[in-house]
Amino acid sequence: MDAGKSLPVNRWLPYWAVFQADMQQTVQSWAYRLWVIGSVLAIAGFLTYRFGAYKESTIIQPSTLVIQQILRGSILGCLTLVVVLTAGSISGERGTLADSVLSRGISRYQYFMGKWHSRVVTILGAFWLVGSVTTVACLFLLHDDLTLKGALFALLAVGAIMFTVVSCCVTMSALFHSTGMSIIMAWGLLYGVTLGLSFFPSLQLSPEITLNALPNMLRGEYDPSGLVKLYLWSGGISLGITTVGMVIFAQKDI
Amino acid sequence: MAADQSADLVIETFKLTKIYQNRQIALNDITLRLEPGCVLGLLGSNGAGKTTLLRLLIGLHQPTAGWVKVFGKTMTPNAAELRRRIGYIPTNPQFPKGMTPITYLDYIARLFGIPLGVRKPRLASLIRAVDLLSASGNPISGFSNGMTARLAVAASLINEPDLLIWDEPTHGLDPEARRSMLELIKTLSREKTLIISSHNLSDIDEVCNHAAVLSQGQMIYCGSLQDLKGKMRRNHFEIDLEGDQKAITRAAVTVRALSEYKTVTLKQRKMEIFLNEDAVASTALANLFMTLTDARVTLVGIRSIGQQTEQAFLDLVDQEESRGFARIYRQEAA
């Protein structure tokens, strides 16, 4: 039969369309706004309290310790919201919006990557923005014992952990039909990965070890090879999990 | 619908079977060949497997067994290049929150990889064509069923597809919107191949030239709509009479005694008759008219009941169910 009128095609446009639409949807979601606004208010309150203690009671407030507490709080306190925000990225659209998208000229790989990258950018973007502002605020308001280079590496280290969390959650979202199940399995996977890493103490890679090492890192006392190892492992685990998830998702029913 | 050259077929399925999680058999052994220019009406009751079949054709589902070829190539979840030639409307189209017709159609066009210079003029003309110009900047969330249906139609046409797969396009539409939709389907059928799934058999009757009937996951008929109508029974008539009620009753008793008639029911001045399977309708009706003349009863009108696609469909489903275990073998007629 006739090939029909063939329109010009930009092969990566579908990926960008999903990436941009998902970023827009994520930023407009209640979970994302709650996370960002909640984090900003909590950090502002905490910094005001520490700044008051430093000025009024002249109790020394080392910036490195305060930032470590804030980053630790961001990771542990907001993890549930981040999991909720990412573990429903694909499963939440199954049978509804996903039909309208995946019945068009887009492959499952492009759809998965668009979703994954959009969640990584929105979550890490907000985290780094809030983290950078906090660092600068600490630098001016509190006892100055941090280095900018150390702060950059510390934010990257915590970002690497967040990257792994987001990747695990998006993967679970692609593998399970219900968002509830995705969230449960994402928690299971995150604990599993943390537990697995704890069996190799020589690797020094568990989130707990990284978070405890933050004050030293912020002061500029870090082991560059250890940081590189952390980034590589984090990237490797994330890529491994998402690759497996993407391959399975590409064969699954929607 | 069969063609000798597989390469020329728009859709070809072979022993297509879908079993969900080893629990539910949704489709069983569907072999279908669709030539260019066909307008295929997909019929079946709820849960017959219509939507499952359409989702397999578009690559949203993977077959448990068998295969689907579209435009001569195997359909898979990653066959984006095949889907670029298909326009699909799901049963209840869903739209992302906060989008307007312009942003939505732009999004869908980008999902097809259509570059800016082509997609903008195209979406503008489609919005005009489906009469959404005045609402083109309004949020879709506030749209009526008719408006969302029109938007879904525009989205399915944005890539200038060769094949349209529309799952219940008239579902939830008011009579005016339904009429417009049917007219659009007729217009599109002049240059495209269409698969229309619908519960409304009169819609299928009006716009389709081929039909496929699904029952409990199996295809019990696939062929031209005319052949399907030819399969229906023609032994059920309704007759309106006028005259003395006693004379009408007497005539009914006489007709009951005739050998061609299976049942004769009289409800005041309306007579409902069923002919025997082997009766010749013209002879039986001639005898009926003579009886009425003798009884001095006036014939006001006569209607053949079930001369519709709906009756043919129901007959097919009845026949299929009555075959019992013999269903394991294919019916030659199907």
Structural features, described:
The complex is a heterodimer of chains A (254) and B (334). Chain A is 76% helix and 0% strand. With 254 residues, chain A is mainly α. Chain A has one domain. The radius of gyration of chain A is 21 Å and the shape is globular. The two termini of chain A are 30 Å apart. Chain B is of the alpha/beta class and 334 residues long. Among the domains of chain B are: 6-85 and 161-230, 3-Layer(aba) Sandwich (Rossmann fold); 236-304, Alpha-Beta Plaits, CATH 3.30.70.100. Chain B has eleven helices and 14 strands. Chain B has helices at 50-58, 80-83, 101-111, 116-129, 145-157, 175-188, 201-207, 225-230, 245-257, 281-294, 309-322, and strands spanning 11-20, 24-34, 39-44, 65-70, 73-74, 86-89, 163-167, 193-197, 210-215, 218-224, 236-242, 261-267, 270-275, 298-304. In chain B, the strands form three sheets. In chain B, strands 6-7-8-3-9-10 form a six-stranded mixed beta sheet, with helices on both faces. In chain B, strands 2-1-4-5 form a four-stranded antiparallel beta sheet, with helices on one face. In chain B, strand 9 (210-215) and strand 10 form a beta hairpin. In chain B, helix 9 packs antiparallel against helix 10. The two termini of chain B are 12 Å apart. The mean pLDDT of chain B is 88.
